Every structure is written in structure tokens, then in C-alpha cells.
Amino acid sequence: MFWKIVGALIVAWVAFMVIGSVVGFLLKAVLWIAIIGGAVFLGTAAYGAIKGRNTPKQLRR
After folding, report:
1. CA distance readout (Å), 14 to 22, 26, 36
2. Longest Cα–Cα distance in the chain
């Protein structure tokens, strides 16, 4: 009975370790994708602001 409890605790510990490493990897990946996406967005916004027309656009009525 003692070894069943110890075995169950070891299995639960290994499962938490695997789940934690997978979730940690996914969070890091999402963080880097967000950073790269933000940099690309800011770059395109700056390019559009620099290369944009000098005359402001007017809404048609």
C-alpha cells in the first residue's frame, strides 16, 4: 500500500513537470510572437506615417 501511494505521488509529480514545461514553452512562444508582431506593427505604422500623403484625407458626404 505504501509503494502505491509513493508511485502515485511520483506519477503526479512527473505529470506536473511535463505539463508545466509544455505550458511554459507555449507562454514563451506566445510572448515572442507578440513582441515580433508588435515590432512589425510599429514598423509599418512608422513607414506609413513617413511615406503618407502630405494632404489630409477628407471624408466624402
Report:
1. 12, 18, 33
2. 82
* 53's grid cell: 500623403
Report the alpha-carbon distance of residue 42 to residue 45 in Å, rounded: 5
**Which residue has 511554459 as its cell numbers?**
24
> For the segment 9-23, what is each residue's pLDDT rounded down to a tens digit?
999 999 999 999 999
For residue 48 the three cell numbers come to 506609413
- Which backbone phi and psi does 34 adopt, to 5 degrees? -65, -40
What's the pLDDT tens digit per position in 21-57? 999 999 999 999 999 999 999 999 999 888 876 666 6
